[in-house]
Design goal:
Elements (H helix, E strand, L loop, with lengths): L30 E2 L3 E3 L2 E10 L4 H4 L11 E16 L4 E11 L13 E6 L2 E7 L7 E10 L4 E8 L6 E13 L6 H24 L2
Antiparallel strand pairs: 1-3, 2-3, 3-4, 4-9, 4-10, 5-8, 5-10, 6-7, 6-9
Protein name: PEP-CTERM sorting domain-containing protein
Organism: Sandaracinobacter neustonicus
Pfam families: PEP-CTERM
Length: 208
């Protein structure tokens, strides 16, 4: 069994690049509101945006640090959901990039958004963005999951207005419980045990 470094990626289209905003359902050109299941994700009041051409959203100063050309967003009290299936049993490991739109319109059209991360009915954490925030890495060590079982990973917006958080590079994997060390690890362990044994023998001879 492979170690945590070789854990399989469970998320489909975590970078939101598989479907162009210009071709997506609910397209407005450089951004889209594709309600329902599209390209690995299910959107409810959430969407896709092009990180370089969506000037109606952020003028000429988009947040920096996103990956690729597109990312997803959770607006208002929208939901962004993906079903994942655990390949092994163990602790779920999550990571993603988080950014926000700047406050160029005032009122509720900005990036002061709070959102929750859920796994089925388990709340894993609550996060907040500030208007104009560049992308930053978020991580979570989630609950234990069981091999072969499916779970809904959910990003849920909390703002009562039109505030928006951006999400990119969403990743999920399982850190296997009771993982067997890889051959290279075994080799290092055996070498270490051998060195300890040699030291103990020398100490025994010195005190004989």
């Amino acid at each position: 069994m492979a170690g945590a470094a070789d854990a399989a990626e469970l998320i489909t289209n975590g970078g939101f690049e598989d479907l162009s905003t210009y071709a997506a359902p609910g397209s407005h050109g450089s951004y889209a509101y594709p309600e329902g299941a599209v390209a690995g994700w299910t959107f409810y009041g959430a969407g896709l945006i092009n990180g370089t051409t969506a000037t109606p959203w952020f003028g000429w100063a988009p947040p920096q640090g996103f990956s690729g050309a597109q990312y997803g967003f959770v607006q208002g009290q929208g939901w962004l959901v993906q079903s994942i299936t655990a390949d092994v049993s163990g602790a779920l490991q999550l990571s993603w990039l988080e950014g926000s739109r700047p406050d160029i319109f005032g009122g509720g059209y900005k990036g002061d958004q709070s959102y929750e991360v859920w796994l089925d009915t388990s709340l894993l954490g609550t996060f907040s963005t500030q208007s104009g925030q560049d992308f930053t890495l978020r991580t979570l060590s989630g609950p234990n999951v069981t091999a072969g079982n499916s779970y809904n990973l959910i990003f849920h917006g909390l703002s009562a207005s039109d505030n928006t958080a951006f999400l990119d590079d969403v990743s999920a994997s399982v850190s296997a419980s009771g993982a067997v060390p890889e051959p290279a690890t075994w080799a290092m362990l055996i070498t270490g045990f051998g060195l300890i044994g040699a030291v103990m023998r020398r100490r025994g001879l010195a005190t004989a």
